[in-house]
Design brief:
The protein has 176 residues and is of the alpha/beta class. Helix content is 40%, strand content 20%. The chain has a single domain, classed as Rossmann fold. The radius of gyration is 15 Å and the shape is globular.
Length: 176
Amino acid sequence: MAYIRESDLKAASTSAQRTQYASFYIKNSLASASKSIFLSHSHKDRDLAKGLINYLAPLGLSLYVDWQDSTMPRITSRETAQNIKRTISELDFFLILATPNALESRWVPWEIGVADQAKSHAKMAIMPVADSNGNFQGNEYLLIYNRIELDSLGGLLMRDSDNSWTVGEVKSWLAS
């Protein structure tokens, strides 16, 4: 297994075929989605988030991204924090798009803390994003969470936080 690379997510965000495929699944599954995920990420990584959305769309889930939420205030405020905190608590899962920008963000570590209090360990995961050499330079505290990696065929798999076992496909994680 390997970490997904920035280049993979950027390619997925601009791939017309993958975007069309994701759009089809999002439109057809949003109302019937049985599981929901809060995506914690840096707004500087909007293209990477779009790529991740395209990767996850076929799994039939609802993926919450704050910049797609029309109820969010235009200017960051106390209301923004309250909305995020409420949404993290309400949704089924919490996923961190772990990039250097996310780790430098003021919001992402706060969101992780909120989720850590609101969710069980099994409902949280990180998606480490590797550099062009395949390396991930994450903060130590991220290592306590399960993570999503690519298998040899480009599929998404869950790995336990202590590297002792593979949890299985992401779809199985979402069914838990």
